[in-house]
Amino acid sequence: MDRFMLHAMLQDMLLARSFEERAAREYTEGNIAGFLHLYPGEEAVAVGVLHAAESSDYVVSTYREHVHALVRGIPARSIMAELFGRRDGCCRGMGGSMHLFDRERRFMGGYAIVGETFPVAVGLAYATAMRSQPEAVICFFGDGAVNQGTFHESLNMAALWNLPVLFVCENNHYQIGTEIHRHSAVSDVFKRACGYRIPAEKINGMDVLRVYEATQSALQRIREGAGPQFLEMETYRFRGHSMADAGNYRPQVEVEAYRRMDPLSIVEKAEQPLYPSAENIASAGPDTINGFSEHLRAEQLINADEIEQMKQQVEQTVEDAVDFARRSPEPGMEEALAALDCNRGQEVLI
Amino acid sequence: MDRFMLHAMLQDMLLARSFEERAAREYTEGNIAGFLHLYPGEEAVAVGVLHAAESSDYVVSTYREHVHALVRGIPARSIMAELFGRRDGCCRGMGGSMHLFDRERRFMGGYAIVGETFPVAVGLAYATAMRSQPEAVICFFGDGAVNQGTFHESLNMAALWNLPVLFVCENNHYQIGTEIHRHSAVSDVFKRACGYRIPAEKINGMDVLRVYEATQSALQRIREGAGPQFLEMETYRFRGHSMADAGNYRPQVEVEAYRRMDPLSIVEKAEQPLYPSAENIASAGPDTINGFSEHLRAEQLINADEIEQMKQQVEQTVEDAVDFARRSPEPGMEEALAALDCNRGQEVLI
Amino acid sequence: MAQEMFYYQALNRALDEEMAADDSVFILGEDVGLYGGSYRVTEGLYARYGEWRVRDTPISEGSFTGLGVGAALIDMRPVVEIMTVNFALLALDAIINMAAKIPFMSGGQFPMPLVVRMPGGVARQLAAQHSQRLEHTLMNVPGLRIAVPATVQDAWWQLKQAIRSEEPIIMLEHELLYFSKGELDETADAIPMHRAVVRRPGEDITIIGYSRMALLAEEAAALLAESGISAEVIDLRSLRPIDWATCIASVQKTHHCLVVEEDCVFAGAGAEVAAKLAEACFYELDAPVQRHGALDIPTPYNRSLEIASIPTAESIAEAARRLVAEPPAAGDEK
Amino acid sequence: MAQEMFYYQALNRALDEEMAADDSVFILGEDVGLYGGSYRVTEGLYARYGEWRVRDTPISEGSFTGLGVGAALIDMRPVVEIMTVNFALLALDAIINMAAKIPFMSGGQFPMPLVVRMPGGVARQLAAQHSQRLEHTLMNVPGLRIAVPATVQDAWWQLKQAIRSEEPIIMLEHELLYFSKGELDETADAIPMHRAVVRRPGEDITIIGYSRMALLAEEAAALLAESGISAEVIDLRSLRPIDWATCIASVQKTHHCLVVEEDCVFAGAGAEVAAKLAEACFYELDAPVQRHGALDIPTPYNRSLEIASIPTAESIAEAARRLVAEPPAAGDEK
Ligand SMILES: Cc1ncc(C[n+]2csc(CCOP(=O)(O)OP(=O)(O)O)c2C)c(N)n1
Ligand SMILES: Cc1ncc(C[n+]2csc(CCOP(=O)(O)OP(=O)(O)O)c2C)c(N)n1
Ligand SMILES: [Mg+2]
Ligand SMILES: [Mg+2]
How far apart are CA A341 and CA C104, in angstroms? Predict the structure, then answer.
């Protein structure tokens, strides 16, 4: 992978982290409301997967989708404005945090009812296959979503009709406060794919490069006509489920252990660890990502200055986004009605 | 297995066949209406499974449940009266063919919405496990039902909580007119159980003895606390999906091939084959059940007279059932209202 | 140019014509393909258009309806058949939380040219689980539209209009109408999709119905004529939106209004019609707006009880007679 | 003996008492156990009663609700919590086609002592998919009963009554009420579960509401009093059955009736109330029964639009003012 790509990935990870932490602050200050589900800890998944995708591929996500949207290229401004419920938000303030959509960038929505992403993705893939187009559909979902009936129904249809869908499970081990061994008969989510003849693999979702590679080869198989593929990304969320959740059901040691594997540290570990302190890392057990990190530094693919510059850029982007959101006007009721009837056109109903 | 048991099984199979063929006739004559789904061809499953169960076990079934109900011990009279919609039917004429219930015999219902049997069975098993009772729950369903979301959700919960359910798939290869390879990504239904750590096996469902044995050992494992078990019974329905379906989507050769494996012929093949002629059988390819049949005859477990006697008894039972149904009065609206409010008791609502 | 045919054939023709005209139209549902559809509505289309455009699905209502939603997002025009309305309870999330809400939630970015067809109503001894009515549930959903064709002509018109519309539309077809006969005139000017029509003019009372009940209301009007009562019969044709103008104009003339529905009366489709007209025509009414619909019980399997549980032409006529004979008796829930 | 507490605490206490008294009562739902419930309703019960009686479930609404149905068949008393009403769209087959119909279809053989609790309503910027209202759908189902407690006392009473009943009961709890405070008097004589109550007596107009809207109606009545209008406020407490006698008696006195609901007006819960009262009180009404409810759009995320989409105390008062000032303007769908 070239230097440019690597930098872009690191930048996206930094932006993701910064955007989310800022959203948390804006929530606390009352500028954002409703349910707010943040992504810190899981950045490697969104960044690795979406950098491996083509811009013509479709993306379907959940309520925890800000970062998928960002990495997909929706401007931070327009996402932040949406979180603020403003007119310049990507959904004009009608959808909010859990319902980001961007037609142009083929970001096909954040869905807040667990399990909805599956049939939507399969529908997009069906249309694509029917038109013999080369695009794939990337479907994000959590470990908890795997127990919803639509998972099963949709995977069966995707396999039966050999549809171009990449199922990406973000296994962060929790369905809100319920740990995976208490909600699923199998803790290895990828095993669920066996009932449908769908090739499946477990990937270290804290390792952005591994995520990237796995996605790339899965997408290649899909484009070659191999049908749906399934990737389980093992990852962790550092925060609670949403801003309403302190995450107290998790042992502190567990949270710490995963912080040590912070995906950001893959490329900048020695420079400036965002979460764990250097001592924490030193005292840590095996860190699956040290290898990568060292490899990258050894290859001299990045230096401290570059990272510093990136961070400043990212902070500026986020600051600008908040500023933009703040200044954007509230939508009026006539805009709500227009959104509802967006498709009516000249149709005479009565 | 002793002679008595074997005879009882044969008798039940004969009764099942005769009852269903008579129901078809009564339907044609207008005495039964609605959707009528018949069981000929699949008798070995109901008979083998339910003879291996205890009377304290619970049974949950679908709209194709007359034979499960019969073998469970609901009198032919009360089932036939239900099909006629009469007051002496097992549900007082309120439920009809697709909704047979018998509280006393733990026949927990015929459910007409595909996929409902799963959660009901899991709920019964949950209650049983919670009370630490030794009963198991037997859950019948078809190959088409396996694609419903509740299958997935329920199997996960059953495995997760180690519940005493025996899942019995009656794989007759068709979901109405859609053959299994056109509705399921895997044609071996038992493979679907792998995603939940549930032990599963494919059984020749045309062989009543094999069905019996497999059920017996699965129930034993369940009672020993091994959690849910899954049996795929490969079988075939000789008729269309329901009385409204001529079954024309199936190649005639396929129908004939399965007729050759008619489960009834296991024990009485040489005497008087109900479906295929002796010549047909002779000209047939490998018949998986000849072995059993010959074995039974060699062991002299039954003779021609006994079979003849059984048949007469069965015919009489069915005749009597029709007679009973015909004479039973129509229920009145006050009975319908009483059924609806059966549980209200002395409760003061307003 | 009118041609006599069955209701199911009119639907079949509408599908065939729209599929021929626009290759983004495709059908999916259980047994719609090889088998030809449980009520023959899709007969012949599999052979003509192939498996991708007439897709037989597994029994997975929640997800194949959701599949339609996904495909509609990128300008396909899926026509989902839910084998019967009874199974639509499994697909309501896709219909209510997805199809109806996505255009709005996305701030108007996404069209939803989705049609969901479902046969329903009380047929013949299909028992409680197969006699579910769902109109009341769907009516309360902003973003949906609901067509309820009663005639061969409307079946053809409304299905074609639904397929061409960019909004999500539910077609509630009645199981007992599929094999009813009527005239189809392809050259007639189409009535707007949601306009109500006066099926029979009259002076003394307005009887409002939809789907099969509109036809029974016409029969009832014929019976009433024999007893000297002139009933105006309105077929709503659509349950969302409802053509209030046609209803109000009629009630202003007759000063009496009976709403007939196959839904259970309590909180059924007729509640909206009655509540709205009682309000809008308050000063014009000589008697309360009354509803005549199904009894408040699950549908019994037994045939006599089943018949007794829903309106018949006779019971409609009887309810109308009582209503015009002032003051009416209270509480008529057949 | 009254004690002040939160609404969620009253529910928690009801559960605790019933679980202590009867070991066939058990709870299941997402995060009801270890986590203590999204709205703290089941807090502490997992520790006290263990995982079998307070069962954390996977995200499988259709099946764990169905699990409750199965368990209820053999005399367990499951209390299913659907995390919010929005997810109940996935469980409607279990509720409508199973729980409500089995007692009937089995000819009266099976009880269905099932309680399904679901928080709902429009809360605070949860957006369209999380602001679904479902009362209209559930009301039309024969065999179900629906309680909609607005106060701490009713939350406690009605949940206890529901658990003890042998019929399937839906508890619609309002997300914005969980952290409202009120008095609980455990020694007071219980009001029957489905009886409506007059929360405030008045002479000029009857305002009928339920759940949070009943409380807003009380606030509105206070505002109206300032402008010299005496409003009688009725809290329905139950949506199925509805206590008509209490409503009718009030309308016969005030001759004006405003129905307030959080459901969208078109085919919402209020349609039944308005249709029935317009009929039953036809000769007593001085003005049409009017409905005041949610706008006919999915709930917007934006806060001002969200507020504008449902009734407020002010908008209720305004609607009431217009209604008593005859003749009222047509078509008030806030
Ligand atoms: C059908 C449905 N049930 C319940 C919820 C409430 N809920 C929101 S997120 C969530 C947990 C989802 O867990 P998972 O799929 O692992 O995703 P994660 O939040 O961990 O990313 C639940 C139960 C919902 N939104 N939809
Ligand atoms: C949810 C649902 N969808 C569709 C139907 C219509 N239907 C009734 S039986 C059936 C086929 C079921 O096939 P299978 O499970 O293999 O059982 P079999 O009839 O072969 O015994 C279908 C589609 C239904 N009853 N319920
Ligand atoms: Mg998770
Ligand atoms: Mg089958």
Answer: 8
